[in-house]
Write a structure and sequence with these properties.
about 350 residues; alpha/beta; 3 domains; four-stranded mixed beta sheet; 7 strands; about 10% strand
C-alpha cells in the first residue's frame, strides 16, 4: 500500500517540477529549480495524505541521503496530512471498515459534537448485576439468561446499587456447582461431549484435558484476581486456578442433596470470596464526554466499563455502543439521536 502511493506522489511531483523548470529555466531569482526535489516532496506529501503519517519524512531523508530537503518535505507533508485529516480517514481505516474488522475507529477531529455527547446518552441501562442479597436461585436464573456475559457488577442491593466491584462468570458457576449441585446448572454449563466419553475409557479419564470454555461457556476478564498465580495450598479457589480433567467434573459430596435441602440451599444468599471480587473495575461518571470515553477505551484496550453517579451503578457501556456512536457521527445521525437538550453536564 505504501509503495504505490509513494511512486504516484513522486510522479506527480516530478511532473510539477519539470513544468516549473520549463517556465523558469534560469530559476526563481537566485534559487535554481530541481525537479528531483519536487519529486521527493510530492512523494512525501501524497503518501502522508493517504496514510496520515508524519514519519514518511524520515523515510524520504534516509532514501535520498539528503538533509537539505528536510524543510520542504516537512512543509509539504504537514500541509497534506492536515488537509486530508479534515476530509477523510486514512487508507488503513478505510480498509478496516471495508473488511468489517472489529475496530473502534477514530473520532472526527473537526467536529465539536464529540464533546457534546455524554456517556449517559448511549450507555445500556438494563444491567445484569449481583447483589449481596442475591440467592442461589436468582444467581442460577441470571447465569442461564446471560450465557455470553463474562463478568457481572457487584452492588450493595437492588435499591442503592452502590458499585462494590465485579465478579467473573466462571467463579459464579463454580460457586453454584459446589453449593447446590450439577443438576441445577444443566442449562448453564455445556455437557461433556459424547465422543469424549466414548473415546476414552474410565482408566484414562484423568488425562483428558478440558478447556475453561468447555467448563463454563465463558472465561473471566483478564483483570480478575482468578488469573493470578495463587498457590493451591493457600487459596480456597485452588480448583479454579488449574486446568480440570474429565474425572474432576463430578458433583462434590456436599452437593448431593435431597430435594428439600437443595431447595433450602437455593434460597440462601450467595457467599462470595473476597479473592474472587475485582474491587476496581473501570468506572466512568455520567458526565464523561464521548471524546474522553473513546480515548480511555483506546488507551486501556477496554471491552466494557461501568457508569456510576456518585458511586451508584446506572449503566454499562461496551465497545459495541461506542462503535455505533462513532458510526452515527460519520453518518450525520448523532446530533438527533444522542444529544439531550436537558442535559447540562456534570
Amino acid at each position: 500500500m505504501f509503495v504505490p502511493t509513494f511512486v504516484i506522489g513522486a510522479c506527480c511531483g516530478r511532473i510539477a517540477g519539470e513544468f516549473i523548470y520549463v517556465l523558469f529555466p534560469s530559476g526563481l531569482g537566485n534559487i535554481p529549480i530541481y525537479p528531483g526535489l519536487y519529486a521527493i516532496v510530492g512523494a512525501a506529501a501524497f503518501s502522508g495524505a493517504v496514510t496520515h503519517s508524519i514519519s514518511i519524512a524520515i523515510i524520504c531523508c534516509e532514501a535520498t541521503g539528503q538533509l537539505s530537503s528536510l524543510i520542504p518535505i516537512l512543509i509539504g507533508l504537514m500541509t497534506a496530512t492536515t488537509i486530508s485529516g479534515f476530509l477523510e480517514p486514512s487508507i488503513y481505516d478505510v480498509i478496516v471498515r471495508l473488511k468489517k474488522y472489529p475496530n473502534l475507529g477514530e473520532l472526527p477531529a473537526n467536529r465539536s459534537i464529540v464533546h457534546e455527547i455524554f456517556v449517559e446518552n448511549f450507555m445500556q441501562t438494563n444491567i445484569n448485576f449481583v447483589t449481596l442479597q442475591t440467592s442461589y436461585m436468582e444467581l442460577r436464573k441470571l447465569l442461564m439468561a446471560t450465557p455470553d456475559q463474562k463478568a457481572y457488577p457487584l452492588v450493595t442491593n437492588k435499591d442503592d446499587r452502590i458499585l462494590l466491584g465485579s465478579v467473573g462468570r466462571r467463579y459464579l458457576h463454580y460457586l453454584l456447582v459446589h453449593r447446590v449441585g450439577h443438576d441445577s446448572l444443566h442449562h448453564v454449563a455445556k455437557p461433556v461431549p459424547e465422543y469424549l466419553k466414548k473415546r476414552h475409557s474410565t482408566t484414562n479419564l484423568q488425562a483428558v484435558k478440558l478447556t475453561d470454555r468447555s467448563l463454563s461457556g465463558n472465561t473471566l476478564l483478564s483483570t480478575s484476581p482468578l488469573h493470578q498465580n495463587f498457590g493451591e495450598a493457600q487459596s480456597p479457589l485452588a480448583p479454579l486456578l488449574r486446568r480440570q480433567t474429565l474425572g474432576d467434573i463430578k458433583e462434590p459430596a456436599e452437593a448431593v442433596l435431597d430435594p428439600t435441602r437443595k431447595m433450602s440451599k437455593l434460597c440462601d444468599f450467595v457467599e462470595l470470596d473476597e479473592e474472587a471480587i475485582e474491587p476496581t473495575p473501570c468506572q466512568l461518571v455520567r458526565g464523561s464526554s464521548l471524546s474522553k470515553v473513546h480515548n480511555l477505551f483506546l488507551l486501556l484496550g477496554l471491552q466494557n466499563a461501568y457508569v456510576t453517579d456518585r458511586g451508584r451503578l446506572i449503566g454499562v457501556v461496551s465497545v459495541n455502543e461506542l462503535r455505533e456512536v462513532v458510526s452515527d457521527i460519520y453518518a450525520g445521525k448523532a446530533a438527533l439521536k444522542y444529544i439531550d437538550p436537558n442535559f447540562h453536564g456534570a
